[in-house]
Each structure stands twice: as C-alpha cells, then as structure tokens.
Fold each of these.
Amino acid sequence: MKKEINIETWKRKSHFEFFSAMEEPFYGITVEVDVTQAYKKAKALNISFSTYYLHATLKAMNQLPAFKLRIDNGKVFEHNRIDASSTVMKEDETFGFSHVIYHDDLAIFNEALQQEINRVKQTDTLLTKDDYGENIIHFSAIPWVNFTSLSHARSFSYPDSCPKVSIGKMIEKKGKKTFNVALFAHHALVDGIDMAKFFDAFQNILNE
C-alpha cells in the first residue's frame, strides 16, 4: 500500500525539484554505532547478529516517514511498509539479492529471513527475483572491513530512490563493540536532519 504525496502543496516542493534534476542526487554519511547491548541481546535470543541488526535497521526505517518515500515516474509516494533487498553470500563467494519482508516481531522476521536466505543460496544469479518492488532499502554488510567511507556502483540512467545501508566490521575496544554504518539517500526525499533521526532511532533500538 502507498499514498501519493501532492508535490504542489508539499513543503519540500522546491527541494524535490532541485535535487531531482541532478545526475547524482544521492549522498551518504558514515557513522560509528555502539552495538554492545545489541550483540549481547542477539546472543541471548540465539539469533544471528546480522539478523538482529538488519531487523533493527528496518524497524528504524519504518518509524521515519522520509525513508518511506519513493519516486515513481516523477511522482512521490509514501509506502506503508519498507522491506529490504539484502545481499546473501553463496557457497562460491558470490552473492545474490534477497527480498526480505519486514515484520515487527523479531521471531517471525527471523524465520522468514532464514527461508529467504536458503532460497537465494540455491540460485545461480545475482537477481533472484523478477520484481523487488520500490518499497525496499538496499542493504549489505562488509563484515571483513572496518571502513570509514563507502561508495556505491550506480547507473545514473536508472530511476532509483531507495535508501542504501551498508554495515562494516564489528570491532571491540575496552569492552565496547562498534561498527560503522554507511547510509545513502536521495536528497530530493531525505535531508541531513532525517539522516540524524535514522541514526538516533537505530541506536535507540540497538540499546533496547
């Protein structure tokens, strides 16, 4: 389900028009996030840490209207639920794009995610579905590298307005566990204050 935003009366009308005209309207921020409590919670629940932080990412995204907006043929729509297309590593060290449906209940989310991971691992292509929909974020993890910045391969001619989240290697210093998170968003839809709101919400969820 989605609803159309009336651009003519939208407070972001001039921002939307300005940034939509750019060849590269995406921008990114990389932030260090404390995952000490989240790691403990995941282990206590016997859930993989990657599942736990993917769920936390989607939970934060679904709380923030700016990250639920997508551009379709020059129109802006707000979706009622945001899912994820996450990279899944295969046995041969290639990967495929999954389609992960968000559910607020972590146990239900985890069960569905494991089924989707198993499905993707049985494929031999990068694109494992015909249609992923627009109500997604592009999600990836690079758990081997503690990166401090990141860029993405993009086709400027392809109409894309989905936020992109990448998680780096978890490191531990003096009992505190952290990883870096790179967040990219379309500036016609998302401003710096929205980026800050995401990281605040994400950190609060991880601290629960």
Amino acid sequence: MFEKGQLVQQEFSAQIMEIIGFEPEFIENVVTQWEDEFGTIVTAKFMESQLIKVC
C-alpha cells in the first residue's frame, strides 16, 4: 500500500515521482507529481500495480 508523500517510479522507468493523492473511485487511482527536464510540474495518475516504491 502506498502513502501520500511517498516516492515511487514505474517499473521500467527512471522517473521518480511523489504521490500527492488518491482517487479511490477510479482504476488509475494514484495521483503523482514530478518536475520534468524543462522545470515543468507534471501530474499523472497510475494504477497501484504500475508503481514500485523508491528506497
């Protein structure tokens, strides 16, 4: 189970994202945010099964 503020990434991606919230009524219910290489803040939603915890 994930928690708000936790750092995660997709299994085959190097992009580190922070969990900023959850939307339990949707299949893609984990809301993440990160800063891209241009300094833009990006927000996206993923299914829990697509993410792994960053140590």
